[in-house]
């Protein structure tokens, strides 16, 4: 269902009710009255469904089609980590990404070759109209095993405000449903649903974003008072991980029991 106005659909349906038979006719079982009552019930259900879906903004992402999204904000978190915010199609658009899933980004280099990488956003449907990523930039000449650096991350770092990147999603094998429930899709096996009271997570660097996506969802659910999370996080420096975590989730909760082991 699109964001288009629904008056052209709803008004004709409501107009059909203008020549209603009397209540006495319906109660006495008159054929025309009974038919009208049945039709009225169907129309009422249709109107309710139209209004319900019309009020819900459609999702921005498509799983089978890349779409361009415009960069509207770029922030330097550390010397090699950036925060990128892209605009969705309209201010009311929802990302439409299930918790636990990620998004594929794509660009074409000067030689016409496509490069594609998947990232987990740090924002969701709670921020309509935008999608935000925190990404480490792997620069050329820094790591001897990867002399060219990361093609996608360097491309993103080179973007100017107003430039676009192609994206599609959702994709992934795990979806968090809430209340400790989640589904897992394994190769050549049917989708299975599982449940856990405590989540143990291990992450390193900006690879923490998939973990934070699930943590954020757990903490936003005021009805979930039993699901708990432990996070073991590794990073090269003491300052950077705390800066990244606080930047992403400071509005959701306060960090406790944080220790640093050099």
UniProtKB/TrEMBL annotation:
<dbReference type="InterPro" id="IPR001433">
    <property type="entry name" value="OxRdtase_FAD/NAD-bd"/>
</dbReference>
<feature type="binding site">
    <location>
        <position position="136"/>
    </location>
    <ligand>
        <name>FAD</name>
    </ligand>
</feature>
<feature type="binding site">
    <location>
        <position position="209"/>
    </location>
    <ligand>
        <name>FAD</name>
    </ligand>
</feature>
<dbReference type="InterPro" id="IPR039261">
    <property type="entry name" value="FNR_nucleotide-bd"/>
</dbReference>
<feature type="transmembrane region" description="Helical">
    <location>
        <begin position="33"/>
        <end position="54"/>
    </location>
</feature>
<dbReference type="Pfam" id="PF00175">
    <property type="entry name" value="NAD_binding_1"/>
</dbReference>
<feature type="binding site">
    <location>
        <position position="117"/>
    </location>
    <ligand>
        <name>FAD</name>
    </ligand>
</feature>
<dbReference type="InterPro" id="IPR008333">
    <property type="entry name" value="Cbr1-like_FAD-bd_dom"/>
</dbReference>
<keyword id="KW-0812">Transmembrane</keyword>
<feature type="domain" description="FAD-binding FR-type">
    <location>
        <begin position="64"/>
        <end position="177"/>
    </location>
</feature>
<dbReference type="InterPro" id="IPR001834">
    <property type="entry name" value="CBR-like"/>
</dbReference>
<keyword id="KW-0274">FAD</keyword>
<keyword id="KW-1133">Transmembrane helix</keyword>
<feature type="binding site">
    <location>
        <position position="151"/>
    </location>
    <ligand>
        <name>FAD</name>
    </ligand>
</feature>
<dbReference type="GO" id="GO:0016491">
    <property type="term" value="F:oxidoreductase activity"/>
</dbReference>
<feature type="binding site">
    <location>
        <position position="119"/>
    </location>
    <ligand>
        <name>FAD</name>
    </ligand>
</feature>
<feature type="binding site">
    <location>
        <position position="153"/>
    </location>
    <ligand>
        <name>FAD</name>
    </ligand>
</feature>
<dbReference type="Pfam" id="PF00970">
    <property type="entry name" value="FAD_binding_6"/>
</dbReference>
<feature type="binding site">
    <location>
        <position position="152"/>
    </location>
    <ligand>
        <name>FAD</name>
    </ligand>
</feature>
<dbReference type="InterPro" id="IPR017938">
    <property type="entry name" value="Riboflavin_synthase-like_b-brl"/>
</dbReference>
<keyword id="KW-0472">Membrane</keyword>
<feature type="binding site">
    <location>
        <position position="134"/>
    </location>
    <ligand>
        <name>FAD</name>
    </ligand>
</feature>
<keyword id="KW-0560">Oxidoreductase</keyword>
<protein>
    <recommendedName>
        <fullName>FAD-binding FR-type domain-containing protein</fullName>
    </recommendedName>
</protein>
<dbReference type="InterPro" id="IPR017927">
    <property type="entry name" value="FAD-bd_FR_type"/>
</dbReference>
<keyword id="KW-0285">Flavoprotein</keyword>
<dbReference type="GO" id="GO:0071949">
    <property type="term" value="F:FAD binding"/>
</dbReference>
């Amino acid at each position: 269902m699109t964001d288009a106005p629904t008056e052209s659909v709803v008004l004709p349906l409501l107009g059909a009710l203008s020549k209603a038979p009397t209540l006495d006719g319906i109660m006495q079982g008159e054929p025309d009255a009974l038919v009208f009552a049945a039709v009225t019930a169907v129309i009422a259900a249709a109107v309710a469904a139209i209004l319900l879906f019309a009020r819900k903004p459609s999702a921005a992402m498509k799983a089978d089609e890349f779409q361009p999204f415009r960069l509207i904000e770029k922030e330097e978190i550390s010397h090699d980590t950036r925060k990128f915010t892209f605009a969705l199609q309209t201010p009311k658009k929802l990302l439409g990404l299930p918790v636990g899933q990620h998004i594929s980004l794509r660009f074409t280099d000067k030689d016409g070759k496509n490069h594609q990488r998947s990232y987990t956003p740090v924002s969701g449907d709670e921020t309509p109209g935008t999608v935000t990523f925190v990404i480490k930039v792997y620069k050329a000449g820094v790591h001897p095993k990867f002399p060219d650096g990361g093609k996608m991350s360097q491309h993103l770092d080179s973007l100017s405000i107003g430039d676009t990147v192609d994206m599609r999603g959702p994709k992934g094998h795990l979806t968090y449903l809430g209340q400790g429930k989640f589904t897992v899709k394994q190769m050549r096996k049917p989708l299975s649903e599982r449940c856990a009271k405590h989540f143990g997570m291990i992450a390193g660097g900006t690879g923490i974003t998939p973990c934070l996506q699930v943590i954020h969802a757990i903490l936003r659910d005021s009805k979930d008072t039993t699901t708990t999370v432990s996070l073991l996080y590794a990073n090269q420096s003491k300052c950077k991980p705390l800066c990244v975590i606080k930047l992403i989730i400071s509005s959701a909760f306060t960090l406790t029991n944080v220790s640093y082991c050099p």
